[in-house]
Amino acid sequence: MRINSFGRNAVCALLTLVSSSLFVQTTSAQTININPVSITGSTNLQPANLAIDNNGSTRWESNHGVSPSSLTLDLGQAYALNQVVILWEAANAANYEILGSNNNSTWTQLSSRTGGTFGNRTDTVPLAGTYRYVRVNALTRSSGNTWGYSIFEVDVFGALPAASSSSVAAGNCNQGCVTTLNSTTLRATVTQADIVDIHYRINNGAQQNVRMNVSGNNWTYDIPNLAAGNVVSINFTIIRNGAGQDTAWQNYTVGTPASSVAPSSTPRSSVAPSSTPRSSVAPSSSSRSSTAASVAPASSSAASLGNIVPLYNSSTVLEGAIQFDRGDALVTRIADRGRDRHAKEDQFQAYDHFLSFYWEHRTATIEIVDYVAKGGSTVRMNVVTQFRLSDTEAENRWFYRGVGTVAEYHDNGTMNVINDFNYYKERSYNAREGRNIQIGDKLEFELSQFLDHSVPHGRSAYYGTTYLYIVGKGLVPWDITGNFGTQGGRKDSVEIPEKAWLGGKTTLPYMHSNEPDNHFIQMATNLASQNGQPFVLGRRVHHASFIDGSHDEHVVDNGIFPDTVGKAGPHYVHDRCAGCHVRNGRAAPAPVGQPLDKWVFKVADINSNPHPNLGRSLQPKSSGGVASEGQVSIAFWSESNGLRKPNYQFSGVTPARFSARVAPQLVGMGLLEAIPESAILAKEDINDANGDGISGRANRIADPATGQTRLGRFGYKAGTTSVKHQIAAAFNADMGVMTSLLPTPDCGSAQTDCGPSGSEISDTHVNNLVKYISTLGVRPQRNINDAAVQRGETQFATIGCVGCHTPSYVTSQYHPLGELRSQTIKPYTDMLLHDMGPDMADNLGEGLASGAEWRTAPLWGLGLSACVTGGVTNAGQGAQVCTPVHSYLHDGRARTIEEAILWHGGEGQASKNAYQALSASQKQDVLRFLESL
Known about the structure:
The chain is of the alpha+beta class. Helices cover 12% and strands 27% of the residues.
């Protein structure tokens, strides 16, 4: 089932319960100075957020010579607009228009202004209409303005539109109502629905997810034991006629009259604007709250974050929880995909790969309704498919047997059919144990997606993922145990201890299908039901050529993806994402003299500005008859004391400054994005106040969507702020594909053949790719009971490695993806920049990072990466063997994990020295530990 989000512009009716009837309590609308939730510029020489920062000495500035240029403000919800006040800098517009929209796509002209003259001025423009988005669209520059457009501040005034009371007065709460039952209890009501779950948080605490109580088609739920002043955040998942929707989050303050509950966008001022034009300098006493303060989560103080604005906070719209207690059952909702063979069949090597047309008709959603967990007697699985299953083969196999084969279950048979896409299975009996199902029982299951033979593309026979569900607990990653022929059989599943779950509940089982090259391409174990299709659709984008549209797997069967044809270039590094990130793993150095076609070279002139002939990245390939910017290869390796270092040669222009970087592995990126900013910044010690020789600092990067300062997270120097920013940057610089986030090509000042600006790929494709990358599963730590691994973990801490390679975090409760929220993860990184000494340095910085500073690399997947990078021998199924290629550090110079350690200098020097002082056996223990990750 696809869950769709409501638009944020729906204004929730505020209700009070009197004499057992519902009514709206209203007051006259008050004009306020609206605090936008975001602002974006069509071009940004200086960030857009400087136009709403309450600082009259800072300003947004467009790119020079570009008309039209615009600022777009998102007010968070629709307001009845009154006027806009614009404080122009001298470089202003002669002619401009004010536009309004409720979808950020279709625009209505609200006002047009002409005849503006050069010089600082304040324009007060009356407006009318109810809109969420407001755009200041500058059309032509004033006479004497030879630059662009520049605005100190822009203020939008308006009032919340009056809510309609007719449906509520009649008792109709189709989209959800919240009323005060008594001084300590709120009552939530939804009418005329088939199924309703309420999701709520009290004072930004843990999210509760509960199935509401039903009478007829009306659903209610009481939230008790509240105190005056408590803020309760609520949204609903409402299912009607098989279709589901998530309502927008709304906040309710206990003890506050309904008419005065604050809207989600905090007003800048409660006073209506004066008709007197403001001065060109904003007063220091301005009542508008700063952008950072308006979005910072309650758990992070402004002092701890400084000028960094969190990606997510208590107002972030959340996707549904993967697992929740609905009162009568523990409910788990996940996605599955078609498989070739079974998980424990190592002789076929055909489980973890993806088949042809994997994005079409071949995912399913599974809802596990565990009544036993709440005192009931049954476990039920509801299955929704993308295509009709075979009438005789729609099996859902439960309770592993494994006596004859490793694909043998005690409870087989086809599921009950509701219709062509909906199936279920429900049991009270544990066929393996010969008794009723109990809490703690192992329920290994495998859904067989044998499609009806009318499926239009690809074959119809597929198996599914092998899952282990612990009754009363939930899904867990699994290992195998047991001998052939015994009860439970050969390769019986057993839960992996939680200390090995490197990726929290995204953690995958151990690999038992003998496919060592496929570790990094798997769905997270807890992939949400609504994200199965986005995952595979995003994967298709990842593997598609943006030159000819071909897929790099099953090339003939998978055909051409029309949406990506002819989009790469005219300058680019590679035509597909998977061309550099092969199997989502790390790239490696090419042989001496061969093009480094899986690398990125950041480039600049001697002053660290974009190179006039190359831009910010060297793009060796070209399309459309455009000349190449030149190839880069390794001319030779310098070697000293067993350590090698690459020396490069450029076939074209040799930039004065450059930074060489191999393509990194991709697993775990969504979890790294979900680490709270406050947890990372708590590790900052810029001046080494504790004297440990480590002075990590965060990179601070402007968000390309809002202009706000964000924590740098991704890239070798933490130069991008989010998974989406990283993907858009790779599209832009690595593939020459423009997106709505980064619509301007990388182009040097002397280049004239960079191609036009403007998005070339839909936001839907970009967002699907973001979900694919964000929800890749992480393999668990291996050999956790090996004494050498355990000793190595202790030594790793003792010699100071954890000073930078922070073992664990708990991810934010506010991340929008349920798979990533509130997970205990073990990435072994502090996400900070560290000076690694002159031997590791290049001569080009990024953001605040110097040439010598690098972000601490996460270590999960370290012991698996060589087989992923190198792949397997070109042999038939069952005969493929790993051909490892070891490539570590930012330029692949390290051929072993130990070499990577020995390259540590600067802030890592003390730990390297401590490692070198260990005995030979102690060093081997450290390496065995690192290889286990």
